[in-house]
């Protein structure tokens, strides 16, 4: 809904420039004051209505939302700038389905099997018929952040190729002069962490979910990461085999297999001096997509 709200606000701003005459700063401020919250809210209410069935890519609700927004563009006098004289710019999306039923973890101290949905959520990170981890070494890498401007590097040059990285969600937020304090930066987002894990050659990445660090409960992860997932077709570059989330309780079980305590690992990850911690645990799973 936030994206829709921003889109509609931009549409109204553009509409006052539809005749091609650039606005001066005072005119822009005057135009902004003319935006009626009730006008924006009425569009958001329609686009967020259950009748649009979530507006999933390629669905009937998605088509309805597209048609509605295009009609608003036309009504505001915006000139079509898309393909074939329309307001649309077509592109391809790839839909991927399939989840592992379990993730298996083994160490010299024993083994553990996490249950899908209850303990973890995982999806394929590759656009192939199968995704797999085969005895991939589990390494705790703190927040998984490389930020030269903060003199921060959680990887410290360790060879992480083929390994599965256990990563904390968010970023070290307690220090007001570091990572913008409690403001969520790109470094704290799950997509950054998965991309960074792929960049260092990891086979898999597991993000530790907690409600305070994510800002939402586990049920949101369950709802968002099950069912068909959509992404752009791969254009080269490294990719993870498996992208996963795990609950705090499940993660505690995993690190204890390696003789560690989660609270101690989290505390160590709060400083620049942190170094990756191999947990002595191997991860395996295989599933069809």
From TrEMBL:
The entry's keywords: Signal
Superkingdom of origin organism: Bacteria
Gene3D superfamilies, sorted: 3.50.30.30
Signal sequence coordinates: 1-18
Protein name per its UniProtKB record: Peptidase
